[in-house]
Amino acid sequence: MAHKPARSNPAPLQRTQPAVQPPSRWPRWIIHLVASILIIGVGVAAYANALGNEFVYDDETLILLNDRITSFRHLHRVFTEDLFFDKEVTDFYRPLQTVTMMIDYRFWQLNPFGYHLTNLILHLGVALLLYALLNLLFARPGVALLTTLLWTVHPIHTEAVAYIAGRSDPLAALCLLLALLSYIAYDRGRRAAPRKIWLAVSTVGMIGAMLSRELSMLFPLLMLLPYHCVTADTPGRPGVRRPRRLPPGFFWLAAVGIAFAILRATALDVSEAPLAVEPDPRTPYQRVLTTLCAFGKYMQLLIAPFHLHMAQQIWRGLVPVSLLNPAPFIALWVVLGFATLWYLAQRRSTAAAFGFLWFILNWLPISGIIPLNADLAEHWMYLPSIGLFLAAATAIVWLCRWRWLRPAVLLGTTAALIWYATLTAKQNTTWKDTLTFYNYTLQYVSHDPRIPYNLGRIYAEQKRHQEAAQAYQLAIKIKPSHASAHFNLGLVYEEIGEREQAKQEYREALRHNPNHEKARINLAILESGGAPVQMMRTTIGGEGIPTVQTPRVIKIKRRRKTP
Fold first, then answer.
1. What mean pLDDT comes out for the span 398-410?
2. Shortest CA distance to 315 belongs to which of 338, 331, 337?
3. How far is the C-alpha of 463 from the C-alpha of 496, rounded, in Å?
4. Contacts of 531 (CB under 8 A, 6+ apart)
5. Would you state the pLDDT for residue 30?
6. Is 18 in a helix, a strand, or coil?
7. What is the pTM of this model?
8. All residues at 6 or more sequence positions from 212 whose CB lies less than 8 Å from its CB, including other chains
9. Predicted local confidence at residue 263, as pLDDT
């Protein structure tokens, strides 16, 4: 019987060793250096064309219209106000995201190149920390490198990288991975002084993640995952040795997370808005079916990332009412396949099992079981997808054990990486400018009036009245009660001299919103025979405010954004 060495209590995490680890011809530091250079090179190649993109969508609100980023004297406002500085509509407390934009403004003013560069640097930083974490846990550089490469270039992450306002995802992921790495170093440490330093770094990283994204408060659950890969990854039977008790640092970090959650719900409650935009009319059974469909949709987007866009929807925007409907029925088989693979991974590979569990823990909060303001979003996969790519990389390395199969596997993997990187570069172009973004998204969206509405606003600013009218009419077709769309359409008709149609649209705006003061004033002017407007009045999300030449001074009634 093998002798078991005595272990201290609590038992620290031990580095996982592969079953067979052939000696390397190269020093370990050279392997890691080459891997890091490769990760950075591939990431830059995939996202380089995004550096020339302009400000798009919420970038206008967070940067062009945000006076808080212009000076660090506004730092107190950043930590006491909502991300979109409108407590009646949004509920996002992400001050660290705004702080990074303050730094960008200090160096780049309103040059979008600098802001895109920061997003890319954050994304590459997350990739390097991911490689370091996987190496620390599994001591398998091949699996770590392949996982990181697949994750870095996958096009589903363009919404978080090529879109400046999506910065909260890479920023939170960077802080979370730093906190997890530091916690593992703390847990494995023997000397008191370095352990305290690592625990302090982990605490700072955790707080930074919570100040970047609300879901980061689940970090204590992620701290438990490394305990599932503390021994050798033995084929056929993964070794899992749990400590006799958790170290004090775990409870400290859990207490910090709970304290922040309480503080966030009380003193830092910067919003009067509910969690969801409007009450969810679906029954619990329909929510479960929607969650099922969303899971299947995520799997499709990760495996075959076609038709990516910002306003993803479930089953053509319809609510599934039965498990026999096509979308939930297919999604059920996807879930069964996922569960089968997870079961096999539990028996054969600790790394793959860890990956599946990582995905589940990070997916559950955004699964839709608890209603959110959207059923699914591409950028929500930024952190969960790490787990699936880890499982895929583990399977690929396992297949390479057979020499006769190795060339085909390596060729297929290389082709997949090139394909993903190409799709990512192509997807970056859809974020080139506001007009490109809305026109592209409109191809896939038939249920969201915001897209044609905002497209109409852009056309109106460019004096392209015919296109503006068509866009507003489409928004009204999707949502007939859209008072702001009726009002802006009235402004377009008034601008081109169609006063009777303008009056009709103003009346419709008042019928759906009796408190629409601008529509009441404009209608009164027209009915009294007043002169037609001499300047275009337009809105982005609500009330129309007169503007002369600078649309950037328009006051916006902000919409609830995707978290």
1. 89
2. 331
3. 10
4. none
5. 87
6. strand
7. 0.83
8. 94, 96, 97, 168, 171, 172, 175
9. 84
Is there a contact between 167 and 118 (Cβ–Cβ < 8 Å)?
yes
Amino acid at 114: G
Span 198-255, pLDDT tens digits: 999 999 999 999 999 888 888 888 888 877 655 444 343 333 345 567 778 888 888 9
pLDDT number for residue 37: 95
**Arithmetic mean of pLDDT, 364-382:** 84
Instruction: Check residue 52 and give its pLDDT.
Output: 92
Element housing 520 (H / E)? helix 517-527
CB 542 within 8 A of CB 464: no
The full set of domains in the chain, from first to last, is 28-430 (no CATH), 449-553 (1.25.40.10)
How do the residues of the chain divide into helix, strand and coil, expressed in percent and rounded to 5? 65, 0, 35
CB 342: neighbour CB atoms within 10 A? 17
Mean pLDDT across the chain = 81
What DSSP character marks residue 295? H
Secondary structure of 233-293 as H, E, C letters: ECCCCCCCCCCCCCCHHHHHHHHHHHHHHHHHHCCCCCCCCCCCCCCCCCCHHHHHHHHHH
Which structure tokens are listed for 363?
């997916």
Nearest alpha-carbon partner for 166 in 196, 123, 124, 224: 123
Distances (CA, A) of 255 to 79, 182, 203, 261, 428: 21, 17, 11, 10, 40
Torsion of CA 425, 431, 437, 440, to 10 degrees: 10
* Among candidate residues 11, 57, 9, 143, the one with its CA nearest the CA of residue 434: 57
Instruction: Give the integer Cα–Cα distance in Å for 232 and 18.
Output: 6
pLDDT of res. 239? 37
Query: Does residue 6 have a pLDDT over 60?
Result: no
Rounded Cα–Cα distance for residues 445 and 458 (Å): 18
Query: For residue 550, is pLDDT > 60?
Result: no
pLDDT of residue 48: 95
Which residues are registered as beta bridge partners of 233?
18
At residue 522, what are phi and psi to the nearest 5 degrees? Answer: -65, -40
Q: What are phi and psi of 233, to 5 degrees?
A: -85, 80
CA atoms within 13 A of residue 136's CA, in its CB half-sphere: 20
Nearest to 410 by CA among 394, 391, 390, 396: 396
Position 223, amino acid: M
Report the distance separating Cα 383 and Cα 350, nearest Å.
Answer: 19
Asked whether 151 and 386 are in contact (CB, 8 A), the reply is yes
Distance of CA 488 to the CA centre of its chain: 31
Element (H, E) at 546: strand 545-546
3-class SS at 467?
helix
Look at residue 330 in the predicted model and tell me its pLDDT. Answer: 87
Please answer whether residues 382 and 173 qualify as being in contact, where contact means their C-beta atoms are separated by less than 8 angstroms: yes
